[in-house]
Design the sequence.
């Protein structure tokens, strides 16, 4: 197993290998420091990052699919930006649009991977059904959206079971819900211009604790989830269109090959 991994990284492009080694060492240092400080949630994110870093290896060795060096580097940087910078460094909170950027890139990359899987089958003699460029683009789009939905499932699971708040909450000034209908009818009651929300809870000793949210009401991840899926949709559409043009004329749109994995010979 370890010999296979060593051989894989010997064959890897020096640029992507350098990025991989640097990021992996950085994550290991972060994980050790988090463990020393007993921050086990950060340890989990570091371990998850190291696990995700092995994706290119398994794609290459198990699926016999070679990733272009540019795509491989983008995958490493994407994982690092999402888990370490985003979660541990709180770039999601400090840099506006960080989460939006990553989910857009995710939609683009996953569409490229889905596109390559279908394109490989389409060009294989053993595969008797040949899909038109439109259907190949459609399948790559659906593949990307499926990955996006599965990731949102993961975020919800992390929030529900680990209380991680990966689905970032935000303060809104307007809400609408049938729960506020005094007659119990299925008619939403709108509450507008919310100035603050006060939450009463109990601490471990049973003492009543008051938490005040200034500026409105706390949305619990719904807006973030829908925004993520929408920008994933945009990224998937962009690559699917590029993939469609690439199949129609592979020579003219050769730059797309930098994002399309290929079957290893």
Sequence:
């Amino acid at each position: 197993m370890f010999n296979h991994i060593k051989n894989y990284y010997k064959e890897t492009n020096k640029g992507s290998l350098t990025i991989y080694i640097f990021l992996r060492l950085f994550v290991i240092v972060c994980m050790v420091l988090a463990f020393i400080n007993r921050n086990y949630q950060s340890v989990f994110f570091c371990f998850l990052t190291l696990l995700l870093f092995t994706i290119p290896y398994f794609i290459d060795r198990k699926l016999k699919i070679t990733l272009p060096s540019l795509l491989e580097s983008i995958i490493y940087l994407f994982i690092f930006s999402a888990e370490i910078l985003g979660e541990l460094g709180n770039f999601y909170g400090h840099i506006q649009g960080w989460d939006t950027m990553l989910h857009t890139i995710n939609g683009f990359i996953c569409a490229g991977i889905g596109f390559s899987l279908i394109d490989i089958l389409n060009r294989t003699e053993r595969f008797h059904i040949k899909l038109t460029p439109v259907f190949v683009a459609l399948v790559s789009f659906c593949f990307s959206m499926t990955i996006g939905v599965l990731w949102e499932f993961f975020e919800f699971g992390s929030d529900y079971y680990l209380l991680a708040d990966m689905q970032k909450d935000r303060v809104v000034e307007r809400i609408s819900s049938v729960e506020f209908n005094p007659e119990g009818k299925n008619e939403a009651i709108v509450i507008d211009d919310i100035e603050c929300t006060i939450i009463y809870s109990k601490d471990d000793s049973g003492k009543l604790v008051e938490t005040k949210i200034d500026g409105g009401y706390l949305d619990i991840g719904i807006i973030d989830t829908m925004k993520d899926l929408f920008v994933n949709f945009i990224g998937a559409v962009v690559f699917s269109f590029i993939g469609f043009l690439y199949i129609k004329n592979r020579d003219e749109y050769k730059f797309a090959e930098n994002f399309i994995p290929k079957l290893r010979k």
About this structure: Strands lie at 65-66, 170-172, 175-177, 189-191, 196-202, 208-214, 217-219, 262-263. Residues 11 and 117 are 22 Å apart (CA to CA). The chain has three domains: 1-89, 96-169+222-265, 171-219.
